[in-house]
Amino acid sequence: MNRTANQLSLQEFLDLPDSNDHYELVEGQLRPKMSPKYKHSTLQLRLSIALNQWCEQQKYGRVRPEWGVILQRQQKDWVPVPDLIYVSYERLPQAWNEDEPCPVVPELVIEIISPGQTFGEMTEKATDYLLAGVDQVWVVDTKAQSVTIFERDSLPQTIRSNGSISNSLLPGFVLNVSDLFDIV
């Protein structure tokens, strides 16, 4: 084993046995991923359905929930497990079908703020994603009923329940934010 001061290497992390517990690799340490509660899982499902329908219509890529992605954070291996990711077929060919973490940087990462997490913590994580090469990060805030969109070359944009999400990253995709939060 190639451990440094009780730190896991990327390979050691990837070689861990499957379990019902989910972890992220952050600075060589295992960080438990919270088990989603009702509101969180409802929002994740709604976003997944909307994005998956768009993917199937446009044939641009794939959206996946809770799929670990291999990135770099502060020059160290980082394997976060975002609530959802979108990866185009341009970055990861449609024929790719391996049972492993996402091997490329996704275009879009979506994180839903869970109880016990703060918007500030998610903002910091969004910054880490952008610095790792992700084009866009959506932070979904269940309490504020809003989605804040982070992009590398612009200020964050918060869309409240009376607005909609549409942008050039997902041509033709439109999502009314109020639809996410109905009955949540």
Kindly list the characteristics that best describe this protein.
single chain; 184 residues; alpha+beta; tt1808, chain A; six-stranded mixed beta sheet; two-stranded antiparallel ribbon; globular
Q: How many discrete domains?
A: 1
Describe the main β-sheet briefly: 6 strands, mixed
**N-C termini distance:** 46 Å
CATH class: Alpha Beta
State the secondary-structure class.
alpha+beta
Low-confidence stretches: none
Mean pLDDT over the full residue set:
87
Summarize the amount of helix as a percent range.
10-25%
Q: Which percent band covers the strand fraction?
A: 25-35%
Provide the CATH architecture.
Alpha-Beta Complex
Q: Tell me, what's the shape?
A: globular
Write out the strand line-up for the largest beta sheet, numbering strands in chain order: 3-6-7-8-9-10
In N-to-C order, the SSE pattern is HEEHEEEEEHEEEEEH
Number of strands: 12
Fill in the CATH topology.
tt1808, chain A
Total of DSSP H or I helical runs spanning 4+ residues:
4
CATH superfamily: tt1808, chain A
Rg over C-alpha atoms, rounded to the nearest angstrom: 16 Å
